[in-house]
Structures are given as C-alpha cells and as structure tokens.
Write the structure tokens for this entry.
Amino acid sequence: PLSRYPPLINDISFWLPSEAYSKNDFYELARTIGGDLIEKVVLLDEFTHPKTKKVSHCYRIVYRHPERTLTQNEVHRIHQAIEESAVRELGVEGRF
C-alpha cells in the first residue's frame, strides 16, 4: 500500500560514461542507498549532445516514508549520497 504522506521529488542528471552503462545499475544503487524511502525511480529524459555525442540521463526519484512526512533536509542527504555513489561506482559525470 502507498503511504498517505506526501512525496518529495528530486531529479538527478549526469553524463553517462563512455564504457558500458546500464540504467538498472543506477536503479539498484538508488534503492540500496535510499531503501524503503524510495517509492519510485524513473528515467525522465535522455539527451545526446549534438557536438560531443555524450549522452545524459535525467532520473526522477520519488521519496516517501510510510509512517510520517519526510523533510527536504532528510531527503537531501540521501539524494547527495546517491549522487556521490553514482559518480564513484558507476563512473558517471554529475550534472548537479
């Protein structure tokens, strides 16, 4: 069942590495860090730079606690940990 408490929505975008990248790896990384506080992770946009041919992904992460309202400050810490881990573990270049 979905929580009756309001969601907090944060987007994250980054340039993909030149080597193999799987969006499932990002989904798994986000859920590992955010746990039950992440209700949904969706690929919102994919952009290819016309000159450099670099590809960028933008994901929307919906945070929601099942038993209380989350604060933006709480979510910001989790979101920042996801950003840092994506750079470190997936080799992406952050656009945040």
User: Anything to note?
Assistant: The longest helix spans residues 72-90. The beta strands are 8-15, 38-48, 55-63, 93-94. Residues 8-95 form a domain with the Alpha-Beta Plaits fold (CATH 3.30.70.380).
